[in-house]
Amino acid sequence: MSVHPVPIPRDSSIGGAHPGQRLFADIGGLDLERGGHLPDVTVAYETWGALNAAADNAVLIEHALTGDSHVIGSAGPGHPTPGWWEGLIGPGAPLDTDRLFVVATNVLGGCRGTTGPASAAPDGRPWGSRYPVLTIRDQVAAEAAVADLLGVRRWAAVIGGSMGGMRALEWAVTHPERVARCVVLAATAAATADQIGWCQSQLLAITSDPDFAGGDYYGGRWPLAGMGLARRIAHLTYRSEEELSHRFGRDAQPGEEPLDGRGRYAVESYLDHHAEKLTARFDPNSYLVLTAAMNSHDVGRGRGGIDAALARVRATCVIVDVDTDRCYPPRLSDELAAAVPGAIRRTIRSRHGHDGFLTEVDQAGALFQELLGDGAT
After folding, report:
1. How many domains does the chain have?
2. pLDDT at residue number 77
3. Which of 276, 291, 306 is a domain's end point?
4. Same domain, yes or no, for 206 and 302?
5. Are residues 158 and 225 in the same domain?
6. Could you report the per-residue pLDDT of 324-351, keeping only the tens digit for each?
7. Does the structure show a pLDDT above 50 at 13?
8. Contact residues for 26 (Cβ-Cβ < 8 A; gap 6+)
9. Is residue 98 part of a domain?
């Protein structure tokens, strides 16, 4: 099982890191929205730049479902893949570390160093099936505890896309006094029936795998077939029909013949590739926990509805869609922007669909520069 991200050794404790070096914050116990409790929570994170004397230049980057705190940088110990938003952080970059203190956390429930299902429970065994139900609000509560430890009382900006966009928005609603600016890319105020439906098929793909063992597969065979199927389903929603048609059409995979019943079409090979990449680095239980948290996303829950919740926002919010996104279609960003006081509406234009917020780095960077200006709150 050495190819899987369990366990992950610590690189450093809080403070004293080189730029982008993984750090760990021990935030203690965390009471959860649905009544559960996690004792002794650890959150992995990375930072670039330095917090200024006024503590008003900090920016929080929120990653999407299968990302982590490694926003930029090469693969290495603890980082099986390079950064997922290369080019956006550094001296002179859109998130200019000569002026800004940039922080990225690994989400609660994840598998890249933050307490998740593969972490040791108090009895020393992995949490597995005993890991409690999480919501987006629980994840933000953990991040707020990290911010406290870092001395960040108010973020100059919170930026996130997809699942990260959900957390960015939840920050602005839950802690309106702690967020000066907010960028919500390819996300919405609440998970829709369509999104929940696509997620259900992914959850069932994993839990139906004979190797799932009710979630307690650590030390045995992992449910990698189910995980790979879940990734294939998800990836089709992340890319646009136009892109898939343009890139692959009905072409056969070179050297294979689909009509003989054994060969693959090129698009099938493409999906197989992405499934293999993810199963080599991600815990299926984390995929389940995080996907269920996305399904729970609803900023209006217990707050009088979505409009009442969004009326609490005090941050300058930029609401961004991807014009070819079929997972989070542009109309959802329109609805969100209409309900957030003073929201700024922007669009990323991309053939890539939902993943355009990741692939169109120049467009994303221009949005961040427009919003942040001199970087001060």
Report:
1. 2
2. 74
3. 291
4. no
5. no
6. 999 999 999 999 999 999 999 999 999 9
7. no
8. 14, 40, 41, 42
9. yes
Q: What is the number of other CB atoms lying within 10 angstroms of the CB of residue 130?
A: 13
Amino acid identity, residue 212?
Answer: F
Is a pLDDT exceeding 80 seen at residue 369?
A: yes
Tally helices (H) and strands (E) across the chain: 11, 10
Q: Is residue 225 included in any domain, yes or no?
A: yes
Residues 140-147, mean pLDDT to the nearest whole number: 98
Q: What is the DSSP string of 255-268?
A: T--GGGTSS-BHHH
Residues 308-328: what's their mean pLDDT? 98
Q: What distances in angstroms separate CA 361 from CA 52, 218, 356, 366, one per listed residue?
A: 27, 37, 8, 9
pLDDT at 298: 98
Of 191, 193, 278, the residue nearest 233 (C-alpha): 278
Catalytically annotated residues: 162, 325, 354
Domain contains 282: yes
pLDDT in tens, 270-298: 999 999 999 999 999 999 999 999 999 99
Residue 233's CATH number: 1.10.1740.110
- For the chain, how far is it from start to end, CA to CA, in angstroms? 46
Domain region containing 251: 196-291
- Among residues 187, 137, 143, 180, the alpha carbon closest in space to that of 158 is found at 180
Q: Are residues 59 and 170 in the same domain?
A: yes
What gap in Å lies between CA 56 and CA 58, rounded to an integer? 6
Domain-located, residue 320: yes
Residues 273 and 304 in one domain: no
Single-letter residue type at 1: M
pTM, rounded to two decimals: 0.94
Hunting for tokens 């520069």 — which residue is that?
369
Place of tokens 């911010």: 147
Nearest CA-CA partner of 172 in 51, 319, 276? 319
27 neighbors 147 (Cβ within 8 angstroms): no
Confidence of residue 18 (pLDDT cuts 50, 70, 90): low
Q: Which two tokens stand for residue 112?
A: 């890249």
Six token digits for residue 359: 């692939």
* DSSP 3-state of 59: strand
What is the rounded average pLDDT of the residues 59-68? Answer: 96
Rounded to the nearest 5 percent, the helix, strand and coil shares of the chain are: 35, 20, 45
